[in-house]
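Incident review: delayed structure delivery

Summary: a single-chain prediction request sat in the queue longer than the usual turnaround. Root cause was a stuck worker, restarted by the on-call engineer. No data loss occurred. The affected request and its eventual output are reproduced below so the record is complete for anyone auditing the incident later.

Affected input:
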Amino acid sequence: MIAADTNLLVHAHQREASLHSKAREAIRGLAESPVPWAICLHCFVEFYAVVTHPKLWEKPSTPEEALDQISAWRESPSLRILCDSPGVLDKLAELAVSGSVRGALIHDARIAAACLVGGVGELWTVDRDFSRFPAIKTRNPLGA
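Output delivered after worker restart:
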């Protein structure tokens, strides 16, 4: 199963994003495929925070636009939403120690933990910080 990271979702949604077209096509391919794919609940929260942030975009998304986008992705019948569980918390602790995680990098560790516990084989991301978690295979589908 492939999971999509927050940054890929942001690029797919936000037209100002430099990789918008490529990301939109990558996410559309996942959403329209009958093969299961995943998004961590935490990624939806991060997505909302980033696309509605008034200092990051010339035209940030409204709360309604961000929520409409999340709803549209949730309509994909093959989507699996990965949530935190005791197993995720245990894996998070393991990744935090093994990856020497400090500060905001804990969010990446949380996504990696949810993916590992949720049976994800590959995380699509444009973020190189996930390299500190070699247990999760990552790929940049945008070739950036």
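Verification: Residues 2-139 form a domain with the Rossmann fold fold (CATH 3.40.50.1010).
Action items: add queue-age alerting; document worker restart procedure.
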